[in-house]
Predict the 3D structure of the following.
Amino acid sequence: MLSVATWNINSARLRLPIIEKYLKAEAPDVLCLQEIKCESHLFPAEALAEMGYEHQAISGQKGYHGVATVSRVPIREISRHDWQDNGEARHVGVEVVGKDMLIENVYVPAGGDIPDREKNVKFGQKLDFLGRMTKWADKVDKPTLIVGDFNIAPLESDVWSHKQLLKVVSHTPIEVETLQRFKDAHGWVDIGREHIRDPERYYSWWSYRSPDWRKNDRGRRLDHMWASPELAAQAKAHRLLEEARSWEKPSDHIPLVTEFDI
């Protein structure tokens, strides 16, 4: 078995205590982090290596964005795609050594507040980012797992109120349609929804603005784990750790993990 986790950590250095707490409790083989918010040389690599995660692929950036994949099993970095087309650190791809599996770790731009590319440059950048990802996906020819913060909740049941969020960035029809084109480009299988079936409640993010996130429960499923069809067939379990949203100094996202029979 091989377990792979993904988590938008919202600052790896600030959240190091809860990263360590998660690794001690869940011990996934591979952990993909997004929004590490530090340059590569400032990532807490040594602390994680001491916990057994000595295999690392880090693409950092000062103060913003950044992704890192850390592993207890050997991995080899194979790619860093600039799907944002401006040099931002939003992707790193690795090969699991000795396994027929690639893991792509991605942080899709949030897209600002106005769902109109004419009025909001960031929204246009988000759609273009997904367009470049789609062109890449059309050429994927190996068993691949793509994970991370997609910043889109595609299904009605992926948000606390479909009706109220239809015009809110992350759940607008144009974003959902754009993400669907990416999905169709490789025939990706949404592992989360294979194991937690629509319309069952499934959220991975709750805003810091909510004073009582659990009571109000205004969540969205922004984080995803999608796999090539042949790899998805080997996914035997999938779960999320909702309690992590209540840990001390939490991220606004929670970790997801999938176990593969590989």
